[in-house]
Amino acid sequence: MKIWVDADACPVVIKEILFKAAERTCIQLTLVANQSIRVPPSRFINAIQVSSGFDVADNEIVDRLVAGDLVITGDIPLAADVIEKGGHALSPRGERYTADNIKARLNIRDFMDTLRGSGIDTGGPPALSHGDRKLFADHLDRLLAQYAGKE
Fold first, then answer.
1. Total Cβ atoms within 10 A of residue 144
2. Which 3 state secondary structure label does DSSP give 72?
3. What is the per-residue burial (b if ≥16 Cβ within 10 Å, else e) of 1-29?
4. Is residue 33 a contact partner of residue 9, using CB atoms and an 8 Å limit?
5. What are 95-122's pLDDT values in tens digits?
6. Is 30 helix (H, G, I), strand (E, B) or coil?
7. Which of 20, 55, 77, 120 is the most exposed place for a label (fewest CB within 10 A)?
8. Can you tell me the distance from the alpha carbon of 53 to that of 32, in angstroms, rounded to the nearest whole number?
9. Can you tell me whether residue 46 is helix, strand or coil?
10. pLDDT by residue for the chain (151 residues), tens digit each?
């Protein structure tokens, strides 16, 4: 298993949780972004900078991931591609995307996009709460424990 991070919009506190998890579990963690990303010195952590453009980082992640890899993203279409390819997807807020819930999440996303396109202000997401961080860390730990049990 490798962990891939859609890093352009990933909160710093979530990256810090991921850095600690990569070191603790010795699992390769790669942050993918269209800007330079600072990562701590580690043989388990690296960053890939891709060119700017719509979905360039997402496409890079999908191209590189293999079944069983974990992707951290808030991007619902990317999560759908990850699941279709046999990977696991987890949002920075701790929501686990699955084959059972991804279609509903895509529908909600498309509906909200339509509302925004018609001029309705749908607001943005709330600030990342302590509960969100805990939910993320708990789901991450469960996924990593499942992976460790398969070795």
1. 18
2. strand
3. bbbbbbbbebbeebbebbbebbeebebbb
4. no
5. 999 999 888 777 677 777 877 788 887 7
6. strand
7. 120
8. 13
9. strand
10. 999 999 988 999 999 999 999 999 999 999 999 999 999 999 999 999 999 988 999 999 999 999 999 999 999 999 999 999 999 999 999 999 999 988 877 767 777 787 778 888 777 777 899 999 999 999 999 999 988 876 5
140 contacts: CB under 8 Å, gap ≥ 6: 17, 18, 21, 90
What span, in angstroms and rounded, lies between the C-alpha atoms of 146 and 148?
A: 5
- In total, the chain counts a number of residues equal to 151
The residue behind tokens 């974990």 is 70
Rounded to whole angstroms, the Cα distance separating 58 from 55 reads 5
For the chain, what is the total number of helices (H) and then of strands (E)?
5, 6
Query: What is the rounded CA–CA span in Å between residue 73 and residue 97?
Result: 10
pTM value surpassing 0.85: yes
The 8-class DSSP code of residue 7 comes to: G
End-to-end, the C-alpha distance of the chain in Å comes to: 10
Say which residue the tokens 């001029």 belong to: 119
Give the single-character DSSP code of 8.
G
